[in-house]
Amino acid sequence: MSSSGTNTLKQFFIEIGGMTSFTFRFFRYFLLPPYEFGEIKKHMEELGVKTLPIVSVTGFLIGFVLALQTHPILARFGAESVLPMMVALSVVRELGPVLTALIFAGRVSSGIGAELGSMRVTEQIDAMEVSAIDPFKFLVVTRIIACTLILPILTMYVNLIALIGSYISIVILQSMSLDLYIGDVVQSLGFVDILPAIGKTFFFGFIVGLVGSFKGFNADKGTEGVGKASTSSVVVSSLLILVMDSVLVKISLIIWPI
Description:
With 258 residues, the chain is mostly helical. The protein has 8 helices and no strands.
């Protein structure tokens, strides 16, 4: 193996080890007072409000386009009546949680990485340590908790917007009353569909907050380090979300078979 390949592999394992240690450190600090509820609430409001416009548009397009694309396929088999059920199951079980998490990662993880990276570069984090303020507790723990709590709320909102978008698409394609559409959607969805899908978004939110905080908190000196922290936060968190989704889907199918 070449020296560059060896260095890359070494850096990969260093990154894995650092992130694992960072995760254990979070859980250790998470249980210790003081509890910064004010900071958590502030970050939840910031992250939720700033992400709302883009997830609203995305949610509407998910439902609208999914119904638009699926209708001709179902029409071949004379199964247009199952379109609301199919869209509802697709959105709630998989598309809504995963796409919301990926957009959240692109918007939030990069922002956290850049923000904490800038604080590291400008030595604000060092100044907090000198002032007897624990920067990890104040900056990292609060952001990870906020991401973990706000993403499930955003996902439920996106699911609702996607179902509205799919109804508009279905009305354009075929005549269907709102009452019939709601009845089909409610009939197709059960707790087995909703709870695992929303539950896994807690893990996705934790990943977004953890990766962004880890990259920013450990950013290299200089403005280049801030850019790397922001970019790598998006890449790593998106990849981990997809990997985690694969694992959680398999676990949920074992626990709650379809």
